[in-house]
Design goal:
Radius of gyration: 14 Å
Number of helices: 7
Helix content: over 70%
Strand content: under 5%
Number of strands: 0
Distance between the termini: 38 Å
Oligomer: single chain
Shape: elongated
Structural class: mainly alpha
Amino acid sequence: IGVIYDRGQGVPQDPEKAAQWFRKAADQGNAVAQHELGGMYGRGEGVAQDFEKAAQWFRKAADQGYAEAQYNLGVIYDRGQGVAQDLQKAAQWYRKAADQGNAIAQHNLGVM
């Protein structure tokens, strides 16, 4: 349901409702919802921008092996957004995503 409100598919687009629905699914351990919620916190979309919360939600999804979240967690550590900048951790998360075929993570590893 979060995706429906996020994209406005058949309902008016409503980032706040999307965030509420993503949160319900994220709290139940859904990695995709955790990743989406992390992105919303990172962009300040439907919720107040909060890089620490973005990092927390990306980490929950990344720990479940969700490649996009692993990549985004790498970005967070690479830039030091919501966490202390740590290029070693960034590389570790990029590697996990890259090993699953994430091309952007592969690129980022190549230029580190």
